[in-house]
Design brief:
Blueprint: E1 22-28, E2 33-39, E3 45-49, E4 54-61, E5 64-68, E6 71-75, E7 80-83, E8 89-94, E9 98-105, E10 115-116
Antiparallel strand pairs: 1-2, 2-9, 3-8, 3-10, 4-7, 4-9, 5-6, 5-8
Length: 118
Amino acid sequence: MESPELVQHLLERAAFRADAMTKVDCFRSHRLIVGLNCFEPGQSQSVHTHAGADKFYVVLSGKATFVIGEKTVAAGPGDLVVAPAAIPHGVARASERTIVLMAMAPAPTGAAGETNRP
């Protein structure tokens, strides 16, 4: 990353794969992670939890259905979806090409920092 103070042209950093959603790190420290989650239509993110870390998503473009606890929430550009620590969350399905800004604090430790729901 060029400068941790300013990440320019955020949408231009988006990357997509035909076989699975793509994660793009924009900033990472031991206190915070900020990134993009990029989905092609029909792609999803498995429901998972983060013990001791709060997370939020802001839909920058596109539309997706999110799972937060026992609820499903449809979200589009400008919508904020919050997943408090230990609450199962994920993206059930992107209905079109979708870019989501994600931030989590504190940043996860270990390989993935997440635990998939059984």
